[in-house]
Design goal:
The complex is a heterodimer of chains A (275) and B (296).
Chain A (H helix, E strand, L loop, with lengths): L3 H36 L7 H13 L10 H33 L2 H16 L6 H8 L3 H25 L3 H9 L4 H38 L5 H10 L3 H29 L1 H9 L2
Chain B lengths: L4 E12 L5 E12 L3 E5 L6 H8 L7 E6 L2 E2 L7 E4 L3 H4 L6 H6 L9 H14 L15 H14 L4 E5 L7 H17 L3 E6 L2 H7 L2 E5 L6 E6 L10 H4 L1 H15 L11 H6 L3 H13 L1 H7 L1
Parallel strand pairs in B: 3-8, 3-9, 6-7, 7-8
Antiparallel strand pairs in B: 1-2, 1-4, 4-5, 9-10
Helix pairs in contact in B: 4-5, 7-9
Classes of the chains: A mainly alpha (275), B alpha/beta (296).
Chain lengths: 275, 296
Amino acid sequence: MSWAPGRRAAGWRTTGHALGRWAVLAAAVGLWEVWARQQGSSFFPPPSAIAARMYDQWFSGPAAHLFLTHDAIGNVLPSLGRIAAGLAIAVAVGGVAGVAIGRSPVVAGYLDPLLQFARALPAVTLVPVFIALFRLGTEMEVATIAFGTVWPILLNTIDGARSVDPLQMETARAFRLPGPQRLTKLIIPATMPRFFAGLRLSVSLALVLMVFAELAGSSNGVGYEMNNAQSSFDMTWVWATIVLLALLGNALNLLEQAVEHRMLGWHRGARGRTP
Amino acid sequence: MTEAAMLEVTGLTHAFGPGTGHLALDGITLTVHEGELVSIVGPSGCGKSTLLRCVGGLIRPAGGSVVLHGAPVGNVPDRLAVVFQDYSRSLFPWLSVRDNVALPLRRTQPSRAQRRATALEALATVGLTGTAQKYPWQLSGGMQQRVAIARALACDPVLLLMDEPFGSVDAQTREDLEDLILAVRRDRQMTILMVTHDIDESVYVGDRVIVLTPGPGRVRADLPVDLPAPRDQITTKELPAFVRLRTEVSRLVRGQADGPGEPGDPGVAGGAAGAAGAEYRGRDRYRSRAARASQE
């Protein structure tokens, strides 16, 4: 096609931009390294020390364990498991309830004040309540993550289900699509873009809630490890945990984006082509 | 062509909004015979689309009745299909072209393979072989409207409703699609009700042209079109009969400017078309190339 050369040039340009972005990050880390070495402060260890500590702490295990150490298996995996469980509950509840509420304007009208109130409530403030309900441990942590992450998914899904194009609904009626098919072939796919917009927010939120819930009381997990590091005044360990959380956050976002990319190919295409 | 009355619309009235609201249709009465292609033409806002939706059972009219094959229309009747103007919204962007066409067939054809075969056949009928795996938004506007037509044809309808089906495509594509509808209709016995605001189109494809008054819609005129078949974009539009008809329809449509004047009174309608008529004059200027060509 005639626009292919232009596209290739654009491709090179984006590659260049990407390299430039990484160069900025590398420069920032380099400056931090120089500055930290000059200061010699135990509160601000240089990045090389943090990286070495991360390696020792989590990634120097045997090959049979995918190079994960006991510490990584005992703390990082449980945290990820809690995030997965909490998000799974939020997706199931938020997705199903969102479509149901979004498609019934009367119910949506009645529930709106309640939903707005519940959403405004910071999930972390409910940690004491969840501790009382579930005691310390995984259940409490999963409940905190699920409760905090369900709102963006629920509210976005309600909005998406409510705003299915009336002409598409009319088309479904004109072609006499039975109820179940209207749901699976029209309402759910049409709601997906908004559902994923909510999920994106929830994934970032899940990490925060996981750390907070584990700081509040837990016998393992990344938050628990951070607590340990802090109380033993091992600042390099604290920093290593912080960097690990940043990496986990990025990995979760990338995972979400990959799923979204796969599920919403039609959405990007349709938006790119039609005026 | 049989002369049995297939569709009878009697005293159809509809209003939008609370209370009596905005009156869109005011006592429409018309009859459509089996196998006819009836064009409904009228100025913007005359309730053409509302009329079509009432006939299709998509809107429950406030008053009057729609009787199809002797039975009153409540919900959307079986073996009815609709082509909407806005193809980009009426096709589902998350389904491939083939799945869009096959979707309405689930009710009648349990076998997936059979549905797909029917869909491919319908796509071939509208000249879209080889696009089955694509998404609608990967096709041009005209091709998307062909997909919408294929979806309607796949249902094997006895009554096809078209709501300004070619209003969003360019002039050349529009002519191709008009001929496609005429060809499809020649091959299958179908009754077609087509709403349009294009006067040339209403005469070119129609067996009859029904002209509505500006809102609230009433039937201003019901004109038989006796142009020879097969129709041809060039030769049919040169015929004096075509030019006469399109002029008459044009006058009837423009007559809106004179309020509730005498329907079809050329003295009133042609002589003093007011401000609202000017809009139509502008549109006609490019829509009636063929008509002008024949006069030169």
